[in-house]
Amino acid sequence: MVTCTFEDGGTGKLRHVTVKAITVNRKNQFLLEKRGPKLSRPGKYDIPGGYMNIDETTQQTALRELEEETGIQGKIKFLFRVNDNPNRPNEDRQNVDFIYVVEAINEEIKIDHESTEAGWYSENELPQNSEFAFDHLDSINKYLAYLKEPFQLPIIG
User: Fold this and answer.
1) Count of CB atoms within 10 A of residue 141's CB?
2) Cα angle vertex 142, ends 93, 41, to 5°?
3) Does 31 reside within a domain?
4) Would you tell me how many other CB atoms lie within 10 Å of the CB of residue 86?
5) Would the pTM of this model clear 0.85, i.e. be above it?
6) What is the CATH number of the domain that holds 120?
7) pLDDT per position as a tens digit, 90-119
8) 150 alpha carbon, distance to own chain's centre
9) Which end of the chain is less enclosed by CB atoms within 10 A, N or C?
10) Domains contained in the chain, number
11) Is 155 contained in some domain?
12) Max CA pair span of the chain
């Protein structure tokens, strides 16, 4: 939560905007990273993403965070989900998450300080839900369901 001061001098707690990239390569593998020791939920799996800067669109944020954290450049395919559930598991800040499906342009991973490792995972190699920092395995599973039987996008909630 962010405490903001409004024009009338009042304050209020508002939610953060975060953006995530379900990144897929030519082999239909997913890019996952393990969160670094200075982040919340260290050592847990996550998909690349982070907080939106004041001068960015959500698409720009997705691509910036993807490249910063993993060295992977990507191309936005589509907005997959807006997760605005205030009761998300393992989420203490109530982030509103814009989740894009991104096609990887390159596949050589170069992690930054926010990750301890990263790699490409096929559907049958995905870690268990308990190994994820947040609820992003749910979004990956919804994407896999979408590939089998497309439905209206984006998912809201």
Assistant:
1) 13
2) 35
3) yes
4) 9
5) yes
6) 3.90.79.10
7) 776 678 999 999 999 999 999 999 999 999
8) 21
9) C
10) 1
11) no
12) 54
Q: Which two tokens mark 65? A: 């965070």
* Dihedrals phi, psi of 134, to nearest 5 degrees: -130, -155
**Distance from C-alpha of 126 to C-alpha of 134, rounded to nearest angstrom:** 14
| Structural domain containing residue 21 | 16-148
Written as one letter, the residue type at 113 is: H
Give the pLDDT confidence of 58-79 residue by residue, as tens digits. 999 999 999 999 999 999 999 9
Q: For the purposes of burial, counting CB atoms within 10 Å of the CB of 148, is it exposed (0-12), middle (13-18) or buried (19 or more)?
A: exposed
First to last CA, the chain: 18
Q: Is residue 156 in a domain?
A: no
Residue 9 inside a domain? The answer is: no
- Quote the strand ranges of 66-114, DSSP E: 74-83, 96-104
C-beta separation of 67 from 27 below 8 A: no
Separation CA 97–CA 157 (nearest Å): 9
